[in-house]
Design a protein that fits this description.
Length: 295
């Protein structure tokens, strides 16, 4: 997913300091931008945008869109919501600030219907400012952490985060809709589905696994699968896969037959440098140090 047409066009005067472009993420894209004092021209968004201030400033953010005129004093954790399809008329930023921008396509919202959550289109969300929502903030920080420091199953983490963010927006910030009573469904995977999923992970560990693929194996929606897997295994899908990949990397390093770059790619890292950073963060050693210690 590419933010071209949003971050690059909408915020032309800002400095891009971090981006998810090239990460192969599914269901969400992210930018970190340093905004100067400026006025942002009118813009018609194709994606839903969630904006989270990463640091406070003394100035205001004034914006007009969706028939609303809003004025917010920015501080760390402050959130703005700009739904897809609602034209933004203007934004005025009166003091420099550093901001995380999250861009969501329509698909994560539409997938919620099979989980008996309100089926919404992005344009049924409200155009809001001055939001204080700890759940959204934590989702944003998790995505920011992955963008800054890649992990073995980071793309799965981001995919799950996109689903969780979409569900939070649908439940808390959409226009009121009639909702059918939620049907009872077990919160845990049955043993047949669980075994099928675990076998699939083991057989495809060196491939680009996604939550959507695993949900299809379990014959569940991605959002519901992620919740049921976590309840059953006491660990999220991305952490389970990340641990297996780390253990596999250790075995390959100890064997000493493959290069570090080859092991990095087989564990789904975009580069050897990212692999080295993630491996050292977990084990306290670089892959090379671990290999030498096992000889």
């Amino acid at each position: 997913m590419n933010t071209c047409g949003h971050g690059e066009i909408k915020y032309r005067q800002s400095e891009l300091t971090l981006s998810s472009v090239g990460r192969g993420w599914s269901g969400i894209a992210a930018d970190v931008r340093a905004h100067p004092v400026c006025e942002v021209p009118p813009f018609n968004p194709l994606y839903t945008e969630v904006t989270i201030a990463l640091q406070g400033c003394s100035g205001l953010v004034r914006r007009t869109g969706g028939g609303e005129r809003q004025e917010t004093r920015s501080r760390a954790g402050k959130i703005w919501l700009s739904p897809a399809g609602i034209p933004m008329e203007e934004i005025c930023i009166t003091a420099p600030q550093r901001v995380l921008h999250l861009f969501l396509p329509a698909q994560p919202f539409r997938s919620l219907a099979s989980d008996h959550l309100p089926r919404i289109e992005p344009y049924s969300l409200r155009y809001l400012a001055d939001i204080e929502d700890e759940m959204i903030r934590q989702i944003g920080l998790a995505i920011l952490s992955e963008m800054a420091s890649e992990t073995a199953a980071g793309r799965m983490l981001v995919e799950t985060s996109a689903l969780a963010l979409s569900a939070r927006l649908a439940q808390s910030y959409a226009e009121p809709v009639s909702v059918r009573p939620q049907k009872f469904r077990s919160h845990r995977l049955d043993q047949t589905r669980l075994r099928r999923v675990l076998d699939y992970i083991a057989q495809h560990l060196d491939e680009d696994l996604t939550v959507t693929q695993l949900a299809n194996v379990a014959s569940l929606s991605p959002f519901h699968f992620a919740r049921m897997f976590s309840a059953t295994m006491n660990v999220s899908p991305h952490r389970y896969v990340s641990q297996l990949r780390l253990e596999r990397a250790m075995v390959l390093l100890a064997a000493g037959k493959r290069t570090l770059s080859d092991i990095a790619l087989s564990c789904q890292f975009s580069s050897q440098a990212s692999f080295t950073h993630a491996f050292r963060r977990v084990t306290g050693m670089t892959p090379g140090e671990y290999r030498r210690a096992r000889r």
